[in-house]
Specification:
Layout lengths: L1 H24 L8 H54 L1 E4 L2 H5 L23 E12 L2 H4 L29 E11 L11 E8 L47 E9 L20 E4 L2 H6 L16 E6 L11 E6 L20 E6 L10
Antiparallel strand pairs: 1-2, 2-3, 3-4, 4-5, 6-7, 7-8, 8-9
C-alpha cells in the first residue's frame, strides 16, 4: 500500500513538472492550468486517505490493546479472589480424590453421584475445598452463652437437633469453582465464565440448607465426604428438608474455553510438579464434555485448573499447597476479531492453605 502510494505520488509530480516545463518553454506567463489543479487535488486526496487509514489503524490497535489489558486485569482480580478463598481452606481436594479414583474418596465430581444440590448446568467443576464461615447474624442471636439448638436445625443420626456451634461461631462450607461456556440467550460476551458455588450449613437468614452434610460429622469426614468410612453410599443429608438452598454466582467472564490443540501459543502437555495432582482430572473433564479421557492433554480444556499437593499433605499433617492457573481471552470485546486474536498469557499463582482441621501435631 505505501509503495504504491509513493510511486503514484512520484509519477504525478513528474507529470506536473513536465507540464510546467513545457509551458515555460513556450514562453507562457499564466497561472495554474486545470490539469495542474486536478493533479494537485488527486495528490491531496491520496494523502488524506493515507492519513485517515493510518489514524484508523492506530485507533483500532489502541482499542485492542486497551481491552486486552482490561481483560487481563479482570483475570488477575479473579485469580486473586480465588487464591484468597483457597488460602482460608481447611481441606482441599486433589483431582484423583474428586473423581473418586483415589483411596477413601467418594468422588464428588463424579456426575453419577449427584452429591451437590443445585449446581450450575452445562459447567465443569474445577476446584473444591472446605472453608469455615461465620454464623449468620440470625443464628448468633440464639447463642446466649453456649450451645443452643433451634427448631428445624440439622439433625443427628438419632433425629435430635444438632447444636448451633456458638462457641466457635463457624461452620464448614463447601466451595466449588466451575467453568461454564454455555451462553443461553447470549447474555454473556466472552467464551466462558467462572462460577463460584457454595454449599453452607445455613443460609444468610439462618435456615438449614437442603442437602448439606457436615464433614465434621463423626460418621464421615472431609476426605471421604459424604461417605462413612469404608462404605460407598453417602449418609442421609441431615438437612434434607431444610428451607435453604446451595447457591452460585458468576465470578468473571472472558475465560478461554478452547482445547489445547486449538491454541497456537500453548504447549499441548500440561504437567504438575512432583507430589502435586492436577484438578480437575482428565476423567472429570471427559465426564462433563470438556475433554477426552485418552491421556492426551491436547484434547482437553486446560485454561483454568490447579495443581494440588499430595503425599504428606493428603495425610493432613502439613499445610496443603495449590498452584492456580488461569487464561483469559478478550474475544467478544470491541476490536478483537477472533479467539486467537484475543489470546492472553496464562496467569499463575501459588497458595498455601492455612487450615487447621484434621491435623496431626508435630
Amino acid at each position: 500500500m505505501n509503495k504504491r502510494s509513493h510511486f503514484l505520488q512520484k509519477f504525478l509530480l513528474q507529470l506536473l513538472q513536465k507540464i510546467r516545463w513545457r509551458q515555460s518553454w513556450q514562453g507562457r506567463q499564466a497561472g495554474l492550468t486545470v490539469i495542474e489543479i486536478l493533479v494537485a487535488a488527486i495528490i491531496a486526496v491520496i494523502m488524506v486517505t493515507l492519513l485517515l487509514g493510518f489514524m484508523n489503524q492506530l485507533l483500532r490497535t489502541n482499542r485492542r490493546e486497551q481491552v486486552m489489558t482490561e481483560t487481563q486485569q479482570d483475570m488477575q482480580t479473579a485469580l486473586s479472589f480465588i487464591a484468597d478463598d483457597l488460602r482460608s481452606a481447611v481441606h482441599v481436594y486433589d483431582g484423583a480424590c474428586l473423581d473418586g479414583t483415589a483411596p477413601n474418596c467418594s468422588g464428588i465430581f463424579n456426575p453419577n453421584n449427584n452429591f451437590l444440590p443445585n449446581t450450575p448446568n452445562n459447567a465443569v467443576p474445577i476446584l473444591a475445598f472446605w472453608t469455615l464461615e461465620p454464623l449468620p447474624n440470625a443464628l448468633n442471636a440464639n447463642c446466649t452463652g453456649g450451645p443452643n439448638p433451634i427448631g428445624n436445625d440439622i439433625q443427628d443420626i438419632q433425629g435430635n437437633p444438632v447444636n448451633i456451634p456458638c462457641v466457635s461461631s463457624q461452620t464448614p462450607t463447601l466451595i466449588v469453582y466451575f467453568l461454564r461456556n454455555a451462553n443461553p440467550n447470549n447474555i454473556w460476551e466472552g467464551l466462558a465464565r467462572i462460577i463460584r458455588y457454595e454449599l453452607p450449613r445455613y443460609n444468610n437468614v439462618g435456615a438449614p440448607v437442603n442437602g448439606y452434610i457436615d464433614p465434621e460429622d463423626p460418621r464421615t469426614g472431609y476426605r471421604q465426604w459424604p461417605f462413612p468410612p469404608g462404605r460407598n453410599t453417602p449418609i442421609t443429608p441431615a438437612a434434607a428438608t431444610g428451607n435453604g438452598q446451595a447457591n452460585f454466582e458468576i465470578l468473571t467472564d472472558f475465560v478461554d474455553d478452547r482445547l489445547l490443540n486449538n491454541i497456537n501459543s500453548r504447549n499441548n502437555n500440561v504437567t504438575c510438579p512432583a507430589n502435586y495432582q492436577i484438578t480437575p482430572s482428565e476423567a472429570t473433564l471427559a465426564n462433563y464434555g470438556f475433554g477426552t479421557n485418552d491421556g492426551n492433554d491436547a484434547n482437553d480444556m486446560r485454561n483454568f485448573y490447579a495443581c494440588v499437593s499430595t503425599g504428606a499433605a493428603a495425610r493432613g499433617n502439613i499445610n496443603r499447597r495449590s498452584i492456580l492457573f488461569l487464561q483469559g481471552n478478550s474475544f467478544g470485546k470491541a476490536g478483537v476479531a477472533s479467539p486467537q486474536d484475543g489470546f492472553l498469557p496464562t496467569l499463575r499463582t501459588e497458595v498455601l492453605s492455612q487450615g487447621v482441621r484434621n491435623r496431626n501435631p508435630r
